[in-house]
Amino acid sequence: MLPDGLTLNLVVRELQATILQGRVERVYQPEKQEIILVIRYSGRSLRLLISSAAESARIHLTTQDKTNPPYPPLFCQILRKYLEGSRLSSIEQENLDRIVRLVFTRLGESGEFQNMVLISEIMGKHSNLILVDAATGLIIDGIKRYSHALSRHREVLPGLPYIPPPPQNRAHLLNLDEEQFVRLLLSNHLEKKLEDVLMLTLAGIGRSMAREVVYRAGLDPELRLEFCGEYELHALFQSFQKTVIPLLRGNKPEPVIIFQGTTAVDYAPLPLTHYRGLKSIPCETVNEMLDRYYAAKAESNRLKQIKTHLETVIRQNMDRCSKKLTLQEKDEAEAREALKLRLLGEMIFAHLHLIRPGSREVELPNLYQPDAPSLKIELDPSLSAVQNAQRLFRRYDKARDTIKALEKQIKSTKEEIQYLNSIKTALEQAECLADYQEIHEELEDAGYIRSDGKKSRRSKGTKKAPPQIMRFTSRDGYQILVGKNNQQNDYITMRLARDEDYWLHVKDSAGAHVIVKSKPGQEIPPSTLEEAAGLAAHFSEARYSSKVPVDCTKRKYVSKPAGARPGFVIYKNHKTIYATPKAPTPE
């Protein structure tokens, strides 16, 4: 999501009041398409971020700390050469287009003032950041260089004249009265939805603002222009007059960021009332709004990458275990077939007198099923009848030993699949970096992820920080603890819970351990246990079921076998509560 022209207009206005005439102290390039200018103004050093990344091109002040590469890229070196020590003498937006020009002035070697223009072009995948000599109009360099092989309109190469992007030719809102507004809208795009028409026709209007204008006009967001009459068009114009126009005339914006859960989904310089049921976080300035939004998106993308990596590790190991289990069960089935060899050996011993030396095959009656058909037994003609029977008994003994070993291996493989499934369930419910780090650490400790050697070893005597567990209070006033992964489960069950506390867990499924803390001399009411059971069901792989069996017992009846995997316990003296999964209510 890129800022629209209106948002950029407000950003530039704030920058003009904040850093204009400031001196450039330092230039950094922390990412391939991102520049940070450290500008000293009024006793403070402020950081101006300018990005030309396709999906996040923007310009605003930032408070985010970013790691810089050990060696500055070429474009960063050029900006340092021409901009460090200069003053920011002008910041202007071209009309309401997404182009911002920053003019830097410094005293040249000849004693004359020299101007350099840093042009931020925010145009999706065509976004760029270009340094131009103001005196000659020639390009010094661009963060993205390209020739006519990539663009028919212009080339961005050092030494060539700077050619601006093609104009958008959209109408400026301040220049329109209602009659002009209506005539302009009806001149084209009749088949499109209103919000699309506004974006295509009017300068500076992005999708969020267009949708908000339609919503505040009281119109259906799916309404197409061809079905609009005088009433709808008048309502649309009035909505513009009350929302967008005051901002362009200098009114103070009310910037907000819209969150769906912990994910930032939108932003605007005024409250977005068309987002019903989502959290709206106000910001002091438009610059702060952009800084916080893109920081939240970067964190979200980072968490998504971590989650994808962990999902891959878990899936690959579950696939490996599934294939191993299939082979083990196949080998076990074959070994069980070999158990029949004992019967054949006993039949040979019982009918030695019927077997001629050198026989390759013999047909003998079934010892244990006289009415059953006779059985044909293949023999080794080089062995006696007794030796053939002994050979069959040895094969039987080997099959029996194989089955015993395979039963242990199959049990171990099923336990590993169950364990991996518990981590998978925890990963599905992870929400923050700490959750992902705990899961990564568990996978690393279990040998599924190789340590990169960067994790610092805790010095002797230094305690590991406890897991960040969830804590809730029931309607009856009892504290409820919830562990969302195996580390947290072990911590709340084996460390925090006391004998008289209640322990809950979904029956025969992966999920959270839930502890209800008891109070001296009081019995925990059934309503609190039902609440806790609802949480146990919600934080489990059965969270989308309607009724989930949840086992409940006192903590003193829960134990962890020696050498058991994280999160694994055994319990007794339990009762089962059938609960409806219920998400926790924020306190």
From TrEMBL:
A Pfam match:
NFACT_N
A biological process term (GO) from this entry: rescue of stalled ribosome
- The residues the entry assigns to the signal sequence are none
Q: Which UniProt keywords apply?
A: Coiled coil, Protein biosynthesis, RNA-binding, rRNA-binding, tRNA-binding
Gene Ontology CC:
RQC complex
Q: A single GO molecular function, which one? A: rRNA binding
Q: Which residues form a coiled coil?
A: 389-423
Classification via SUPFAM superfamilies:
S13-like H2TH domain
Query: What range(s) does the NFACT RNA-binding domain occupy?
Result: 470-563
UniProt lists the family membership as follows: Belongs to the NEMF family.
Assembly with partners or alone: Associates with stalled 50S ribosomal subunits. Binds to RqcP.
What is its biological role?
Answer: Key component of the ribosome quality control system (RQC), a ribosome-associated complex that mediates the extraction of incompletely synthesized nascent chains from stalled ribosomes and their subsequent degradation. RqcH recruits Ala-charged tRNA, and with RqcP directs the elongation of stalled nascent chains on 50S ribosomal subunits, leading to non-templated C-terminal alanine extensions (Ala tail). The Ala tail promotes nascent chain degradation. May add between 1 and at least 8 Ala residues. Binds to stalled 50S ribosomal subunits.
Q: How is this protein named in the record?
A: Rqc2 homolog RqcH
Protein's organism: Thermacetogenium phaeum (strain ATCC BAA-254 / DSM 26808 / PB)
